[in-house]
Design goal:
With 255 residues, the chain is of the alpha/beta class. The chain folds into two domains: 2-82, 60s Ribosomal Protein L30, Chain: A; 90-254, SPOUT methyltransferase, trefoil knot domain (Alpha/beta knot). It has helices at 16-25, 42-53, 90-97, 115-127, 145-150, 166-175, 213-217, 236-254; strands at residues 12-14, 30-36, 57-61, 78-82, 105-110, 132-136, 160-163, 179-183, 200-205, 221-223. The protein is elongated and about 55 Å long. The relative contact order is 0.15.
């Protein structure tokens, strides 16, 4: 039985909504699905029905046979064993969005290392209609089940581009007419005084040190989020959401 196989969380997606969303968007990525015996409900049945439609193997297992790597996470009695998340090259991403009806929004992540933050940013980016996420191959949060769970299934909707050198990727975006905006808490320019029209790429820096110096040099603008009280910064995923939806608000008001 598959639950005897040693596995890592990079090979799993858990939780009813993430598994159901992956089944709807990209069933080919799923190798098998395991449901804890006795787990019932409309959404669990929807998972079972969709899996059968796509000829994906389903196993009913006792709760004590779930992979030990899950630990105490909220798996809701459902998990999927998956192939690695698909990513695309920067050239492919640019080709896909070249004929977009509206100026595209991209998000670049400069060494975001917490998969919960990664998933939350992916969720906000998808909700804001962003065209894709650009992230580094090294020293960055993995595209694993924790990220998938935090994205609430949005990871299946968004193109994700992995690059070796973020600076080179940003230069390529500039050549294609993108404006580069870097989120920096100490920046004098407020996001509310920033024009987000045109193709834009928003860079969110790592949790500890923010944007690296060479990445800052690629930015056309550095912007901050005005805050009241004693706090001087926001969590990376929260900051990304605030800036993204200000860009969305501006674009909707102008249209």
């Amino acid at each position: 039985m598959s639950y005897h196989k040693k596995t890592t969380n990079n090979e799993l997606v858990w939780g009813i909504h993430p598994v159901l969303e992956l089944l709807r968007i990209n069933p080919a990525q799923i190798k098998s699905i395991e449901v804890v015996s006795g787990k019932e409900g409309d959404k669990v049945q929807a998972i079972i029905d969709l899996a059968r439609q796509h000829n994906i193997r389903i196993e009913k297992i006792p709760a004590n046979k779930l992979p030990q790597s899950l630990g105490s996470v909220s798996h809701q009695g459902v998990l999927a064993r998956i192939a690695p998340y698909p990513t695309i090259k920067i050239e492919q991403l640019l080709k896909k969005i070249k004929s977009a009806a509206t100026p595209p929004i991209l998000i670049a992540l400069d060494l975001i290392q917490d998969p919960h933050n990664l998933g939350a940013i992916i969720r906000s980016a998808s909700a804001a209609g962003a065209a894709g996420i650009i992230m580094t191959k090294d020293r960055a949060a993995p595209l694993n089940a924790t990220a998938a769970k935090s994205s609430a299934g949005a990871i299946a909707h968004l193109d994700i581009c992995m690059v070796t050198n973020l600076n080179q990727a940003l230069k390529l975006l500039k050549d294609e007419g993108f404006w580069i905006y870097g989120a920096a808490g100490e920046a004098e320019q407020s996001l509310y005084d920033t024009d987000f029209s045109g193709p834009i790429c928003l860079i969110i820096g790592g949790e500890k040190k923010g944007l690296r110096p060479l990445v800052r040099e690629q930015c056309d603008f550095l912007l901050s989020i005005p805050m009241a009280g004693s706090l001087d910064s926001l969590n990376a995923s929260v900051a990304a959401g605030v800036i993204l939806f200000e860009a969305v608000r501006q674009r909707k008001s102008k249209s």
